[in-house]
Amino acid sequence: MNPHVENFFRRLVKHRWVVVMLHAGLFIAGLLGARAVRVDYSAEQFLVFEGDAQEVFEQYKEHFPREDLQVSAFLETTGPFTTDDYQTLERLANAFTNAGLDPVRWIGATDFIQEVVIDGESAVEFVRLEDQSDVSDATLQTILEPRREHPLFMGTLWNQDLTVFGVHGYLAPTENNDAHRREVTAALQSTILDLSETSGRIVLSGLPVLRTTIPLALEADMTRLLGIGIIISFIILWLYFKRFSIALLCFAGVVPAIVLTLGLMGYAGQSISLLTSVVPIVILVVALSDATHLVVGTREAWRNGRTISEAVVHTFTNLSRSCFFTSLTTALGFAGLIATRNHLIGEFGVLSALAVIVAYLVTLTLLPALLAFTKDLGPHQEWGERLWQGILTRVESLLQLPVVWPSAAFGLLLAVGLIAGSQLRVEAYIIDDLKERDTILEELRWIEDEGFGLFQINIYLDQENDEGHSPEMLQWIEEFQAFVEEDLAVLGSVGLPQIVNELGTAYGTQPVGSDPTSEIGSAEVRTRREIAELLFLAELEDDDALRDVYLRDAGVGQMIVLVKDQGSQVLSPLTARVEDRLQSHPPPTGRATATGTVKLTTVLWEQLISRFLPGIAFSIVLVWLALSWMFRSVWLGLLAVVPNLVPLVLLLGLMGLGGFDLKPSNILVFAIAFGIVADDTIHFLGALARNLRSSNQIHAVLAQTIREVGPALVLVTVVVVAGFTALMASRFQALFLIGLLTASAAVLALLADLVGFPALLRIVARHPAGRSLITGDPK
Questions:
Q1: Cα distances (angstroms) measured from residue 204 to each of 41, 193, 208, 740
Q2: Long-range contact list for 443-451, CB < 8 A, 24+ apart?
Q3: Which tens digit of pLDDT belongs to each residue from 301-358?
Q4: φ, ψ for residue 74 (rounded to 5)?
Q5: Helix axes 308-335, 279-303, angle to 10 degrees
Q6: pLDDT single digits (tens) 643-662
Q7: DSSP string spanning 340-376?
């Protein structure tokens, strides 16, 4: 034993009251810092890239910030649209206004062009229903029927069948934060709950709403199911130790480490993102595993005749090195995610690495002090001993078998894992990770099936002078709209020509009720001067009339292509076709570029595989370097990487066989699974390294190592599997996979450590060079 390490733990035990008080002070400081941590679940955090795509997106958002600020409510009617339905929409619109959304678009606040006869001559006038004192069923039908398929109204204010009607409002860009989104969503949900008693189906949606309801549901699921899992894990530990306090001590490092990590985030001004919100799970896995190994070891030393204080010092001195390398390799594994070059995933990796180090420091300093206060570490459990010894005896018996048998079994599993893992594909959705029958997804699919688009690909038009509304430019836009609307994933599109044609109807150059997009090139018959006059009249009546598609003074415009969320297999090729079209058929003047949240999301999907693999490879290299340091040998460190890789390959195969696809959340799941794999493996390798110092007999060393760390490894595996399988009941696929893959990783790591790695060492030890490598004997 290292005398310096031993003296350190003796001081901790001797001054345990001081240690506990110091940790209490740190805990309070962590709580104060944690209060400053804000929640930020904005999707744009995923979409931070280098290069032209990011630059164009930022320019676009500067001019058109409302792309992802629309909140929508959809009312389904049970028959023809009546005044009762109109009044329901009116109450919804008032609720939108009261919630601070502006402007609010709905059938009552829209100017409709109506043909009238004045003094025997035909003329047109603007009709706004909310300005009329009396709205009848007949008035509503007069408005709706001629405009049933009007491109500016169908898919926004109503569907083609006139059975679903929408109300839309916009958050102010300065108020697009998590707290305000939750406030607005709660207020609107309350109004909808009141209206649902007397009206048809009402669904609240839009990106701001989805960014509120999904994280809230995720938080609720995580809190409830993780709480259940912790209770199950605690019960198993209590059954093993038969002492409430000892079982509780296995969790001693979890809560303080979580609070301290949040406190450091608060002091650094760091917010909680959707990914970093699961860092507590990382802390739970790592801290619980290390603490369980330490408590089990202390209990065994106490049962062998040492006092509790001496048992604590002896165990922590022996296992501190293993715990250090456990935390180091796990932290390096997470830190390797910075190689993905995605801001949010890299941030998750760094914060997880920090949390692992914090959990290590808390566990190795607080736990020995708390254990020193105990008087009894639990009675001898006959059933428990029989269970562990039975398992370990069977494992030891494998050492007597020809080495080819376990080697062949693991080789077959690896081959299956590689083949199945190679079939993994990227299949991600804009709204992802929910199970198919979840209410949120069902409502989203219903909205899209009714012809309403919540997601859009934006074509940013950068022009000079007044070229943005030239006849040639309007014709080019119409031709592009006709091209893109041929795709089945496209629900419709909106551009300046539709507005110009509507203005033409208003001012007498096009018949009322005609379809402005029925003929390509309808805007071409107007001269540049006529178009300019129409735009001037529109802006004279309403400053914001063209705001969503054209800013004449800035010389920029956009086309809005409304799309269904049909996943990366559909949207990525669609985006590619749009970009190919823009390259092969450029606008007559200026520049046209595909951008927007959906476009950048497809970039994320495309980069996922290419950057995911380097991230994993970088993590493996870092772990190899740490293991080489641990064993003081580059080649032995490389050999020790194998039990870390085997479970990861098998996990990829499990994902492939289970039909799961690669997506951002699965990288998170894979990283957490990597943490548990590294944790168990290092404890086994640490014991192996200690035992190799006292013997060069490979078979005896392996048997001794299995007997030494086997009980703790089995207990940790049972606790992790029992606790994390509770997450498989979640409505979120990400939490389901965290439960499934973490539990699977624990079992696979146990098999790799107790069966696979010993077989590998036996194969290597057959050769003199390999034997000397393992034993450290230069002969």
A1: 19, 11, 10, 32
A2: 443/203, 443/205, 444/205, 444/210, 444/565, 446/203, 447/74, 447/203, 447/205, 448/491, 448/564, 448/565, 450/74, 450/159, 450/163, 450/164, 451/154, 451/155, 451/159, 451/160, 451/491, 451/492
A3: 998 899 999 999 999 999 898 889 888 888 888 888 787 777 777 888 899 899 999 9
A4: -120, 125
A5: 150
A6: 778 888 888 888 888 888 87
A7: G--HHHHHHHHHHHHHHHHHHHHHHHHHHHHHHT-S-
Give burial (CB, 10 Å; 0-12/13-18/19+) of 314. Answer: buried
Tokens of 197: 């008693």
Backbone angles phi, psi at 479, to 5 degrees: -65, -40
Give yes or no for a contact between 61 and 597, defined as CB atoms under 8 angstroms apart: no
Q: How far apart are CA 368 and CA 448, in angstroms?
A: 58
Distance in angstroms (rounded) separating the CA atoms of residues 614 and 338 = 10
**Closest C-alpha among 178, 367, 170, 162 to residue 257:** 367
CA dihedral 363, 366, 369, 372 (to 10 degrees): -40
C-alpha distances out from residue 100 to 96, 156, 171, 172, 214, Å: 7, 20, 7, 8, 22
Let me know if 174 is exposed, middle or buried by CB neighbors in 10 A (0-12, 13-18, 19+): exposed
What is residue 127's three-state secondary structure? strand
Residues with Cβ within 8 Å of residue 230, at least 6 apart in sequence: 251, 284, 723
Residue in the structure block whose two tokens are 């079939």: 423
H or E stretch covering 671: helix 664-692
Tell which residue, 488, 499, 572, has the closest CA to residue 531: 499
Please state, in angstroms and as integers, the Cα–Cα distance from residue 116 to each residue in 140, 351, 512, following that order.
16, 67, 10
For residue 126, the surrounding DSSP H or E stretch is strand 121-127
CATH superfamily of 1-35+242-380: Multidrug efflux transporter AcrB transmembrane domain (1.20.1640.10)
Residues 6+ apart with CB under 8 A from 325: 626, 627, 629, 630, 682, 685, 686
User: Which run of H or of E encompasses 105?
Assistant: strand 104-105
Percent of the chain with pLDDT over 70: 90
Residues 189 and 204: beta-carbon distance below 8 Å: yes
Helices (H), 46-177: 52-63, 83-98, 137-144
**3-state SS, residue 396:** helix
How many CB atoms are closer than 10 A to CB 493?
26
Q: Are 633 and 777 in contact (CB under 8 A)?
A: no
Entry pTM: 0.81
Cα–Cα–Cα angle for 774, 778, 779, nearest 5°?
A: 105
| Residue ranges with strand state E in 128-217 | 164-170, 202-205
Domain boundaries, the chain: 1-35+242-380, 52-63+439-596, 72-205
- Report helix, strand or coil for 681: helix
* Measured CA angle at 149 (ends 148, 152), to 5 deg: 105
Question: d(Cα 703, Cα 399) in Å, to the nearest integer?
Answer: 8
For 670-691, the pLDDT digits (tens) are 766 666 666 677 777 778 777 8
Residue 749: predicted pLDDT:
82
Residue 644 corresponds to which tokens in the numbers above? 């870390």
Q: Nearest to residue 438, comparing CAs of 663, 71, 736?
A: 736
Rg (CA), the chain: 32
What φ, ψ does residue 127 adopt, rounded to 5°?
A: -120, 125
**Residue 103, preceding peptide bond in cis (omega within 30° of 0):** yes
> Per-residue confidence at 667, pLDDT binned at 50, 70, 90?
low
Beta bridge partners of 170: 70
Measured CA to CA, the distance from residue 401 to residue 755 in angstroms comes to 11
Q: Which residue type occupies 378?
A: G
